[in-house]
Amino acid sequence: MRIAVNTRFLLKDKLEGIGWVSYELLRRMVAAHPEDKFLFFFDRAYAPEFIFGDNVEAIVLAPPARHPILWFLWFEVALVRALKKYRADVFLSPDGYCSLRTATKTVMITHDLAHLHFPDHIPFLVKKYYNYFVPRYLQRAEQIVSVSEFTKQDIIRQYDIAPEKIQVIANACRADFVPLAFSEQEKVRTQYTAGQSYFFYLGAVHPRKNVPNLIKAFDQFKKQNPSSTQLLIGGRFAWQTGLVKTAYETATHQKDIQFLGYLKDEEAARLMASARCFIYISAFEGFGLPVLEAINCEVPVICSQVSSLPEVAGEAAILVDPYDLASIAQAMQRVSLDTALRKALINQAKQQKLQFSWERSATQLYDLLSRQVTN
Length: 375
Description:
The chain has 14 helices and 13 strands. The mean pLDDT is 95. The two termini are 13 Å apart. The strands form two sheets. Strands 3-2-1-4-5-6-7 form a seven-stranded parallel β-sheet, with helices on both faces. It has a six-stranded parallel β-sheet with strand order 10-9-8-11-12-13, with helices on both faces. The longest helix has 18 residues, at 68-85. Strand 12 (301-304), helix 11 (309-313) and strand 13 form a beta-alpha-beta unit. The protein folds into two domains: 2-172 and 357-374, Glycogen Phosphorylase B (Rossmann fold, 3-Layer(aba) Sandwich); 182-355, Glycogen Phosphorylase B (Rossmann fold), CATH 3.40.50. It is α/β, with parallel strands linked by helices.
């Protein structure tokens, strides 16, 4: 089988949500199926570390596709030619885009429909592109993969796609996110917070992630519970972050808040596993991978009660209204002071993390691709 893959998000030292999902699924499928040929289509120079085996051929297609006009040229011109030239049996696109003009059978992973729920958080041209192409992509693909049951139901509700066309294949957790020995946790805290405990956030610093309310709730928690606890925010600053800066600049306890920027995988995992609590009060998630990473580290979690997050967190988190600052601050207080609650959340995490496996997800995705070729 000749499997073509859109690998635009395999970016060295810049892997985030979609990039990590692509990385974890593809390296397992490549290793498990040496009999197949994998055609990796990049839109720029690639790192050798992403060529996971001798059965992978890397092809760079111009132009670099990071703008609506260039997306169109890449997916509807360059990709169409490449799929034909390299005789692909099936095309896998893990980033929610596909080609309307190719005849190659297509499996597309859709992570969320955030552009419909938060249109004001998206630049004008990008929003126009999504509104036009996303429903057409969903109709065009022979098979859609959603990363959660929430996303599947959202696709059905928003675009009237037949349920049988959508298969849920959940994300899982990166290998580095594991519990850390107490002595190692102390080293992390010494390095970042002079030995003090901290709440941790990991993800893009973007309005939809609700970081301004996280800062405000932390400030409220500190006012009600004077302590040395800090808030560490890991992740790159994305588009439209003025509200984050305003919340930080007006915070009474600004000195206890740190922006760490983009973190490499190993350091992110060490920070996660050493946290007093992981907080992820995002307003909308198709899956919410950082929540699962915290659960894998057996760290107590506070997360939003909306979209897919309850599905991922199960009983291993305190669920809060992402817009209720008092509720969020109260959850911070509970998880800081209630030892029994912390133990209960950690015990639930040990069970919840067993529900997710990259090996199982990679097998399900490969079987889906195979069926497209044999049908």
